[in-house]
Amino acid sequence: MGKTKYKYNPESLRYEEVEQTFIGRLKKISYYFVSSIVFCAIVLAVSFNGINEYIKTEAEKDNAKVRAELDKFYADLEDIIAVLDNIQDRDDNIYRSIFEVKPYPEYKRKLGTGGNSVKFKKYQGLKNESLLIDISKKVESIEKKLVAQSRSFDEVVELTKTQEQMLKCIPSIQPISNKDLKRIASGFGMRMHPIHKIMKMHAGLDFTAPIGTEIYATGDGVVELAKWNGGYGRCVVINHGFGYKTKYAHCKKLNCRKGQKIKRGEVIAFLGNTGQSSGPHLHYEVIKKNNKVNPVNYFFNDLSPQEYQKVIELSSRPTQSM
Prior knowledge:
10-stranded antiparallel sheet, 14 strands, disordered N terminus, two-stranded antiparallel ribbon, 2 domains, single chain
């Protein structure tokens, strides 16, 4: 993650940590994705040119080693395209969904695509002609995807500038301190119920931690519920507005009351083992327009892209819920 920034406060006469805004983090994420993949594309393009020249000079040798190198290069390109497709999916279904705008137009992502037989004439007669043409097409496809994704991220960043209040309220951090990312015990989806021992929909994330661990509000809002809530045990529900609510269940002790206004990062409760629970943990839910959605899509304000990917992997493991 990036270095922590500090700013001098003339009132407190101290240097205080500057909280990075969602806009800043979104820019950081977009720059990370685009710059990383641009770098990969450049490296691959240079490698491709080198291999191409090597093929030309060795055209008559039918070198099996050259063919193996080309096959590996082709596989690397496939991996980069898969990464770009994943970024596109997150852009359309997470970032743009937050602002309730349509996905980036598909026709814009495909502008300029299509075959051009003239540019591939240089490969005619080479023993690996077909593979070289396929590789050249994939490099061209990656370049166009990069341009489209960069423009799409620019649009999303502009959206954030006009919706600051909404961004303060949308859940965007983890509900407990989880810097080592090892506290996610069970993810969103079908899981074995710990009490009934049957497969049931687990509509949230389970975080393990010692009893008494602080639980934080993940966005600004108003406490809608703060009491015992059946199988959820001691429970807090925060209404964030804009169609969003969050639920924090199985708490040992509550630190808020119904109707209280809450800021992101405030301690609202302490982790426990109340209700239908097989061990100390926090069950956390994100509810959007009355539908429970995967909370991992709402951790974008305190995770780097690498950490975010790790959280997705951890939460996807087929473990038993708690």
